[in-house]
């Protein structure tokens, strides 16, 4: 009396077919599938809300000073800014060797 055999399953399917009809069974299955999907989505949303960690606040970065100089040491950017990367390098202005020779 524990499990259903193939004859019992076939009898149940036949009764369901007679009660609801062949046109109604796909509609019922479609509605049941949508309901299960919405339930799963809602439970996943709740799980995500419960598992989300609050954003951690990072302490402000301190600028270290070297003992020989009084100017703060600043970190250099690791990658150039997009406008710097696209612009060609500018040549250094030429300085005359003897400023009085051109005057």
UniProtKB/TrEMBL annotation:
Question: Which portions of the sequence form the region Disordered?
Answer: 45-103
The answer on whether this UniProt entry bears the keyword tRNA processing reads no
Q: Which GO terms describe its cellular component?
A: TAT protein transport complex
The record's annotation in InterPro entries points to:
TatA/B/E, TatA/E
The Low complexity compositionally biased stretches are 59-87
Q: How does it sit in the membrane?
A: Single-pass membrane protein
Query: What are the protein's UniProt keywords?
Result: Cell membrane, Membrane, Protein transport, Translocation, Transmembrane, Transmembrane helix, Transport
Biological process terms from the Gene Ontology for this record are: protein transport by the Tat complex
Q: Which family does it belong to?
A: Belongs to the TatA/E family.
Can you say what this protein is called?
Sec-independent protein translocase protein TatA
Q: Which organism is it from?
A: Rubrivirga marina
The uppermost taxa in this organism's lineage are: Bacteria, Pseudomonadati, Rhodothermota, Rhodothermia, Rhodothermales
